[in-house]
Amino acid sequence: MQKLLKAILSAGFLVLAISLYFIKWSPGAIKGNENAKKILLIKNGMSMGEVFEIMGLPIEKMGNTNGDSTYYYQTPFAAASNISVSFDHSGRVVHVQPLE
Question: What is the pLDDT of residues 42-86, one digit of tens each?
């Protein structure tokens, strides 16, 4: 019975440690948490250069035929929404999507 209890406690600790890694300590979690804070500094009218200086390079870019584009940034683990910045054809911010 004592061995079973030790095994259950060990498994529980392992699950907790792995969960904390993905939520707080992994490189993706750290970057996602930083991005969630930095996106609040981005304002409409800023240039791409100003955004890249604050946010760094995005993980994905999507554009359309009008020359508008949206840049997506790493989110914290299990985030329900995206972190993104949309630019018009002249390279100015027209929409900021922080975490909700």
Answer: 999 999 999 999 999 999 999 888 889 999 999 988 888 899 999
Question: Does residue 20 surpass a pLDDT of 90?
Answer: no
Residues 5, 25: Cα–Cα separation, whole Å:
28
Q: Contact at 8 Å (CB) between 96 and 78?
A: no
Instruction: Give, in order, the Cα–Cα distances in Å from 21 to each of 7, 99, 100.
Output: 21, 21, 23
The SS3 assignment for 82 reads: coil
Q: Are strands 83-87 and 60-63 parallel, antiparallel or unpaired?
A: unpaired
Give which of 50, 65, 64 is closest to 96, Cα–Cα.
Answer: 50
User: Residue 79 and residue 39: Cα distance in Å, rounded?
Assistant: 14
Distance CA 74, CA 65 (A): 25
- 8 A C-beta contact, residue 70 and residue 86: yes
- What is the predicted pLDDT for the residue at 15? 85
pTM over 0.70: yes
